[in-house]
């Protein structure tokens, strides 16, 4: 595919789309019903459906009977951990292999002209982004992911929280399935905004931002505190009346779903003329400029709080104006 039909490449080799990044037409005012209808399939396809199906598959093929989950025994927990690791290795690894190792589509649609593997940085373990990212993902990320999962299943199995069944509460639970992405976006935005508070940023969130040029393994490469906070979105299903299957979906949505924002390419080519949009631009701009786009754009939080950057010249100017104001405020406070 000719990526220059869809965007431009600058002297440094960075590619940018012609169309400015937009937020979903879900909470816009005035409402845009036609845009909403056109967008609606994207709400389910391909990722949300995939993560919902993976939750069902885990429930049926990976997890033991509820009776077994009443006790914390090594057998089922280790099995769950290993399956989680293998699934993540396959899923994230597929993007890494195709786009970064085999480089099947070269640098077409690639936001950053450089390849992380060709740049050493002291910020990383062994000065290697991929090695550092994978070490954090499997060293702390997957144990935390599995611990959250085990905690939730243990609570449900022992009846510590109400377990609503699909037979008795079909409409309510279906509604919860539908709003899982909304729960995710709200949780993620609030957490993310909080860890950009300078003391927390330095202690916790800077680890994730070491990957200025993110690639698939950057997705869950975070400080353990952030991994707990981010994947902990599934704990909402212990607070609101729900079902363990939905908690699994919420967890998979966060864990496996971290990848689209970090893939580094605007489109992943499937054939000569077909490609899927990654919807990565909003979060790519966050990694590039830090103090914009705290959310992923499902809910226009950043527009409401004035921190949205759509990648255009106007967006750039708005960001600069905000930084100037911030600087002036800081200077005034010193005087
Ligand atoms: Zn990120
Ligand atoms: Zn951030």
What can you see in these coordinates?
The chain has one domain (68-334). The protein has 13 helices and four strands. It has helices at residues 33-44, 47-62, 66-69, 74-101, 129-157, 170-194, 198-209, 224-231, 236-239, 244-255, 281-289, 301-305, 313-334, and strands at residues 7-9, 15-17, 267-269, 275-277. Strand 3 (267-269) and strand 4 form a beta hairpin. The N and C termini lie far apart (56 Å). The mean pLDDT is 94. One zinc ion (ZN) binds at residues 208, 214, 261-262, 283, 287.
Short description:
This protein is mostly helical. The protein has one domain (68-334).
Proportion in β-strands:
under 5%
Helix content: 55-70%
Radius of gyration: 21 Å
SS-derived structural category: mainly alpha
In whole angstroms, how far apart are the ends?
Answer: 56 Å
Arrangement of strands in the largest sheet: 1-2
Question: Strand-and-helix sequence, N→C?
Answer: EEHHHHHHHHHHEEHHH
Which term fits the overall shape? Answer: globular
Number of strands: 4
The main β sheet shows up as:
2 strands, antiparallel
InterPro entries: Fatty_acid_hydroxylase, Sterol_Desaturase_Related
Domain Fatty acid hydroxylase: 178-307
Protein name: Desaturase
Transmembrane segments: 43-61, 81-101, 138-157, 169-191
